[in-house]
Amino acid sequence: MTDRSIVVVGAGIVGSCLAYRLAGRGRPVTLIDAGLPGSGATRASFAWIGRPRISDLPSAPLRYLALDEYRRLEAELPALSIRWSGSLSWDGFDEEPGPRTGDVAALEPHLLDPPAEAVHRPEDAALDPVAAAEILVAAARDRGARVLTGTPATGLDHQAGTVGGVHTTGGFVPAETVVLAAGTGTVALCSTIGVTVPVEPSPAILVRLRADPGLVKTIVATPRLEARQLDDGTILSPTAYRGEADQAALLATAHRVRDRIAATFTGADDTEIVSAEIGWRPMPADGEPIVGRPTGTRGLYVAVMHSAITLAAAVGRLAAGEILTGQPAPELAGCRPDRFR
Asked: Most buried residue among 81, 168, 209, 241 by CB atoms closer than 10 A?
């Protein structure tokens, strides 16, 4: 192949970060998605960005970079409007040692029954993941990337152990490197060439409510309720999936979440339900990110993970560096696909 094209499949938060980092570096970049940017699992994410204080996970070096990388990204793209609100957790939600505060009522003045103390992480943040994906895709386009939305990828071109492009409903897109950041869709695409990526869909529900702005100040997390609020008053609250199979069941779940909000915050009795949707998060078999080149297959790079919002900025920069230079990033050493061999 004469050119050195890179194709990124998936315009969720991870693929959008990758396309942004890869574009404008002397290599033609094409970003492909079956829908619009951020329209998959990214849309249904709570989008809490934090990092561990202590971790012995293989991905710990990557996770420690999470907040710093978002600050770097925000400095480059101020329109991301990351909300550095901090987080409060109590009642055993956060089992990791952390700074505790007894001034919970000052941080969350609308709590009906504030705990005597809570774990306070003032550095934690959140963002609008769909808006972030759109901003990143626009910035990648400004750097010269070609963006193909509404274009499902149907398979990979694979000859003599080398991936040479992507088959789509709109035709074949050749590439020297194909980057799969398609969440659970990565599994099916890899299976077309006999590569196994041990990822299962892990469903969760995100409920959106409408309330008066300023009701929830931080990211609140307890075993019973997680919630954060946008500037326009929208409250986001994730909750466990319990087999909801239709809109009536999702609405019943949303009512339960609304009741929890009303029982937790003063002035929340008039909170209205906006929506409830299921997000099919990609969950690797061991819970750890899968980032890198599968052994035995040239021209292919995968980036699939849970905590995709938290890790996207760091993975975007590090993985792009590996793809462009061929030099491995030590922070990704514990995330390689070949650990499953």
From this structure: 209
